[in-house]
Amino acid sequence: MDATGRAAGGLLILALCAPASVADDIDRGMELARAGRLAEARAVFLHGESVAPRDKRYPLELAGLEYRLKNLAAAKRNLERALALDPADAYGNDFLGTVYYLQGNLEGALRYWNRVGKPRIDDVTVRPEPALNPVLLDSALAFSPGSVLTLDGFRTTEARLDSLDAFPAYRVELSARPDERFDASLHWLQAPAWMEAVSMLRGLAYQTVEPEFRDISGSGVNWSGMLRWDAQKRRAAISVAGPLHHNARWRYDWYAEARSETWNAGAGDFRLKRVATGAELEAIPNGRISWRTGIEVSSRGFLNLPVYPGGTALQYRVGMTNELLRIPERRFTLNSGSTWDVGRMISGSQDLFSHAQAWLAARWLPRASGEDYAMNGRISAGATFGSAPFDEWFMLGVERDNDLWLRGHAGTIDGKKGSAPIGRNYFLANLDFHKELYQRTLFTVEAGPFLDTGKTKDVFGRTALQGWLVDSGLTSSVRIAGVVRISVLYGRDLRGGGRVLYATVGK
To answer: φ and ψ at 311, to 5 degrees?
Structure first.
């Protein structure tokens, strides 16, 4: 026989013997595992996997061994390898879903359980019993007894409960039953009445009170108000928001406010007086997307600032948020949003104007469960078109009435607004890292560094505020029962050397 014939014969012998060797490794490894000789069983399965890397049985058996050794992270890695070979394997999907469930990652569990028609819900309870209208609560829960709780249904439930704002803090839990079905429970934290009362006074140090009444008579309607008597930043506001026709999918919001503020941008003080009222309608069809639309009528006047005339404006607004990416196994989310409005001055100049804004927000929780570590990133940009009133422009800086925080730039000096960069267009990026320093049922302390960068062409022409601005610093916060959040930040302007020490008390 020539060399070619001998090689072909050798390959044939290997091909005939390999299945027997694989079967021997599987059987021998399982016998060792049943005898409690887990380390030896692991060695046999690892050898078999090296011989037959495309055989899913080896990573599945290795996952079982690691599970018995209470090494859930290793069990998860082996199951992921097995499912990479056969994504439809029922045992592997069920097992991996169970591992994520035991680690406290319910979304990760649902992703794999849903592939095998689990978890089927037997009963749904809410603890403690809420005053919320049962019909309204049912419309918020996107699952029911006898159904399978899907990942999409879980996310939709969270989105609608967040929008209702009837529960200050809540969580959805599953409890396994002997028949492989599950009971679902919505647990929420009912804050004591005295704590709710204290929450209304959370802004007292800043000459502000914020009364609010949540879930009035079980209707899901929330009333909130704000009164600030700071001589430089007087403001009064009221808002009424609730579901339409006892359906958590649709929500309305009516608001009204009045302001009288002193501004100083380096060329003397001027006074802004503004009143506005408007209404919005929000739709939450599922947990991935929501949209809203609304109108607003506003009137403003400027004292000692003739270059910016006032007047009354009518605006139409529309906005949308969308979940771009969600990886439950890695606890990573990427969301986007955009808003657009168009308005016309219906007194004075009667000019047409509009704004457009867009943002991306990412969040990553590196631990398998909990929020001990968290990384948050956000990028936003906006542009103004036409002759928009001064109070419609964008401000980058730390200020209570502003949500575009460049945290090394103070929005006020001596209580007067105007010290931060103000422009018609802007770009802003924020990056945060948080670590939980202390955590109990009602009390959480966290802290971490941040880095911000932003740019806008300052309309007042201040040289120090031109070009790219970069800020860094530290933030810390204390959360109490989901009702009060006390935050303190220290930020520094890395280019200009300015410093900000700022405290807020919110929800």
So the answer is: 140, 180
